[in-house]
């Protein structure tokens, strides 16, 4: 699955709008994830997952930074996230199904904050983009 | 996900061994799939899906041939299955989840007929190969 020029433009444009709130969106996405899909908490036994937790905010930032990197290098997501890909493959080993869940939560958070920008086309572009990111992060698993 | 040299060797090895029975295995795969995952029948309202149906046999042969093609061109599955990829994207539009079900059934059929061949390593290679085929066939969906 490749992103068309229009899709890349849509991703980059929305990211530019989100950039200042990226950390908050990250934390919110994780909160949604742990709330709607409690099984995802299994990967964070060492975290305080209550609302507003510093660890949640910190981790949300990490996630959004990585997404920002992928946006910046949207023509070579694989290269940009190579180290993260290895981290997920050899150490974290997050079950691939969870990337869909997190992507869904990120999309919900973005939609909630930018309702008029989140047209069906933009939604599709972001969904493809997050799918690409997920693919890269799980491709070295085996 | 990239097929290693060992994966390719394993896959080619399996297909060499099963080449004489590919058609039969294709039909059996479909039968198992329709049996175990009845929702997959939704794509074949025009078929007689009873045991021994000539249509299922013919279709099983088509599926098997495609897998053999992919195995024979394992270094360029996307090229080998390009037309099939277009067909799935523009006409068939089989929900991607069903490729996993078909792949699983194919593995079961191989396991039943060649228990000693399907070691854990070969199983993993074959599973990766089937995932790669599924990825190619759904790559042009959007």
TrEMBL record, chain A:
Organism field: Opisthocomus hoazin
GO MF assignments: haptoglobin binding; heme binding; iron ion binding; organic acid binding; oxygen binding; oxygen carrier activity; peroxidase activity
Domain Globin: from-to ranges: 2-142
Keyword RNA-binding recorded: no
Family (UniProt): Belongs to the globin family.
GO biological process, one term: hydrogen peroxide catabolic process
Functional description taken from the UniProt entry: Involved in oxygen transport from the lung to the various peripheral tissues.
Protein name as annotated: Hemoglobin subunit pi
Lineage start: Eukaryota, Metazoa, Chordata, Craniata, Vertebrata
Transmembrane segments: none
SUPFAM superfamilies (alphabetical): Globin-like
Keyword tags: Heme, Iron, Metal-binding, Oxygen transport, Transport
Domain of life: Eukaryota
Pfam families in alphabetical order: Globin
UniProtKB/TrEMBL annotation, chain B:
Function: Involved in oxygen transport from the lung to the various peripheral tissues.
GO biological process, one term: hydrogen peroxide catabolic process
Coiled coil residues, start to end: none
Any one GO molecular-function label of the UniProt entry: oxygen binding
GO cellular component, one term: blood microparticle
Top-level taxon of origin: Eukaryota
PROSITE patterns: GLOBIN (PS01033)
SUPFAM superfamilies named in the record: Globin-like
Record domain Globin: where: 2-142
InterPro entries referenced in this protein's UniProt entry, alphabetically: Globin (IPR000971), Globin-like_sf (IPR009050), Globin/Proto (IPR012292), Hemoglobin_a-typ (IPR002338), Hemoglobin_oxygen_transport (IPR050056), Hemoglobin_pi (IPR002339)
Keyword annotations: Heme, Iron, Metal-binding, Oxygen transport, Transport
Family to which this protein belongs: Belongs to the globin family.
Gene3D superfamilies: Globins
Name this protein carries in UniProt: Hemoglobin subunit alpha-A
């Amino acid at each position: 699955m490749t992103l068309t020029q229009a899709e890349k433009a849509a991703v980059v444009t929305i990211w530019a709008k989100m950039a200042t709130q990226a950390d908050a969106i990250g934390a919110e996405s994780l909160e949604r994830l742990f709330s709607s899909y409690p099984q995802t908490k299994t990967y964070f036994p060492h975290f305080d997952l209550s609302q507003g937790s510093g660890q949640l905010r910190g981790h949300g930032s990490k996630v959004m930074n990585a997404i920002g990197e992928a946006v910046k290098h949207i023509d070579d997501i694989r290269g940009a996230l190579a180290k993260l890909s290895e981290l997920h493959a050899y150490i974290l080993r997050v079950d691939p199904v969870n990337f869909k869940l997190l992507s869904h939560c990120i999309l919900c958070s973005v939609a909630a904050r930018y309702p008029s920008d989140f047209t069906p086309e933009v939604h599709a572009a972001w969904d493809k983009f997050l799918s690409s990111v997920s693919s890269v992060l799980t491709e070295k698993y085996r | 996900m990239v097929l290693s040299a060992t994966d390719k060797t394993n896959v080619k090895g399996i297909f060499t061994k099963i080449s004489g029975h590919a058609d039969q295995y294709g039909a059996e795969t479909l039968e198992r799939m329709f049996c175990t995952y009845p929702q997959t029948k939704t794509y074949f309202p025009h078929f007689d899906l009873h045991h021994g149906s000539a249509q299922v046999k013919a279709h099983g042969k088509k599926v098997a041939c495609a897998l053999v093609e992919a195995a024979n061109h394992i270094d360029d599955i996307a090229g080998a299955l390009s037309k099939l990829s277009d067909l799935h994207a523009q006409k068939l539009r089989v929900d991607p989840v069903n490729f996993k079900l078909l792949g699983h059934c194919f593995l079961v059929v191989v396991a039943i007929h060649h228990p000693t061949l399907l070691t854990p390593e070969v199983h993993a290679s074959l599973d990766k190969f089937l995932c790669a085929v599924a990825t190619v066939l759904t790559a042009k969906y959007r």
